[in-house]
Design the sequence.
């Protein structure tokens, strides 16, 4: 099963990378802008969000190609958020995925604009998604609404605002959970739910996918906090101990490494429970959730 | 006619302001973020882009309420672009519409995020646009594609990149025209064409509306350059002579004030020609084009 999952991930990652390349290579735009967009977009990464969309859509009979525009829209939004979060006026990070951040290479103005362009391009892809015959405009519109709400003021952007507001102060567990539910959880929820929406899943299944994604996102975030303390900078591609230096609350400062790990495992268990009604067909989403607390980067 | 037009504009502006207020007042998001978004969004302004969308849609039998989400999406994108363009790493402006710019009031991080949130919210509105019975998902998707392409790397964002690249160097007329066609023209074209698309106009009429908007945008930009030299800072809300200090090419540096004025009038004449087939029904778009070279701010 493990080998099968790794093959699945490698294949989907390759499809996503090829599509991201295709969706940006032909842009009729200033070459330095396109270069900056692609520098960050094609910098590797696990492509978790697009693969979650694909895997969820496969549960309801679609194939990767049917949801590729929406899947890549998610990755563009994730990438733009990293570019803007790394800016000197925000988290002021020099390294991302082991390479200099976008503004370090292209300058601040270009980094702001490359982020803006990726965010905008994501919604151009959502419009393309409507042209896929097995999807159609009505489902594409609903998925676009889901994405916009998850990515905007009521979701990811709002989460980043709250995160900045808590810097240097100690958030408690409910506050920390709320910040992460918005900053990283909302996009995971949108990723999984969009797969279902594009495939025409029923409301009950969409609710189930949403709860799965909420637990998934929580496990992911807790594990990130653990890796910040225990991780290998060469693997994570960012400085270890960064959260502590920023005097930020994390699941590790609240519960210790072992307590945080236990909470991550518990979140994965809750995620897996939501998949039970899908039976064997849910094996990819199951393996994805398990892989979150298995990773070293 | 002039009185009738002014009444029309005042009524539409009021409808747009009320909708912008409604679309942002209830956001479930950090209050300071919503405040920063609304500070820039509700700062007055002519609301030209949304009114162009409304006027174009009225030509084909729709009413303002039918296209209000799309019209307000345009204004949100226009506003986000002003917030980001004003940032220290871009044009570094302290004043906009006679008030301190967003980052001067809320700080740079919040200004970046307020812009991101407005851009994202614009596409949430495009999804809402699909729910309007007289529009429907297929037309809303096409309008959203038009908006995304006009606003992104191939349009407005690309234009800002080119504009920054030419700072301190003297662009010639074709280069200047290209910059402005992207930086401001693309969104005007999208505004007018979206009105037609949402109302189900035929391809020939959409092409005509696109050409009208191209001439409109050119006249608008030339007149801005004229106002930068001859304008009253108290009315324009920004420093006079700013372009010259930045050593930027403008239509005035290329052709002098009188030569620039003559080119603006010529662009308006070309815009009006495109409206001839619409007869009397085109009166609002006609008056809008004429008003561009009549304004003092």
Sequence:
């Amino acid at each position: 099963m493990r080998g099968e999952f790794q093959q699945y991930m490698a294949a989907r990652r390759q499809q996503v990378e090829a599509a991201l390349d295709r969706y940006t290579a032909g842009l009729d735009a200033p070459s330095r802008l396109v270069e900056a967009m692609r520098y960050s977009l094609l910098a590797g990464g696990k492509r978790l969000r697009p693969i979650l969309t694909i895997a969820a859509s496969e549960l309801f009979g679609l194939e990767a190609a049917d949801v590729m525009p929406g899947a890549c829209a998610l990755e563009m939004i994730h990438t733009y958020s990293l570019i803007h979060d790394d800016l000197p006026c925000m988290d002021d990070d020099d390294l991302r995925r082991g390479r200099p951040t976008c503004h370090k290479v292209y300058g601040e103005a270009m980094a702001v604009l490359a982020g803006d362009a990726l965010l905008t391009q994501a919604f151009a892809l959502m419009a393309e998604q409507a042209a896929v015959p097995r999807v159609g405009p009505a489902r594409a519109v609903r998925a676009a609404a889901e994405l916009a709400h998850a990515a905007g003021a009521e979701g990811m952007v709002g989460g980043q605002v709250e995160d900045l507001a808590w810097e240097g102060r100690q958030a408690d567990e409910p506050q920390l959970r709320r910040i992460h539910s918005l900053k990283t959880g909302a996009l995971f929820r949108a990723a999984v739910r969009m797969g279902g929406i594009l495939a025409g899943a029923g409301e009950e299944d969409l609710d189930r996918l949403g709860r799965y994604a909420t637990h998934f996102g929580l496990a992911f975030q807790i594990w990130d906090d653990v890796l910040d303390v225990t991780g290998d900078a060469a693997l994570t591609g960012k400085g270890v101990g960064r959260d502590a230096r920023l005097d930020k609350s994390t699941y590790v400062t609240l519960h210790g490494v072992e307590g945080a790990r236990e909470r991550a495992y518990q979140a994965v268990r809750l995620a897996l429970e939501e998949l039970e009604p899908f039976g064997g067909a849910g094996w990819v989403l199951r393996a994805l959730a398990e892989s979150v607390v298995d990773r070293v980067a």
Q: What stands out?
A: Chain A has one domain: 2-292. Residues 2-292 of chain A form a domain with the Farnesyl Diphosphate Synthase fold (CATH 1.10.600.10). The two ends of chain A are 22 Å apart (CA to CA).
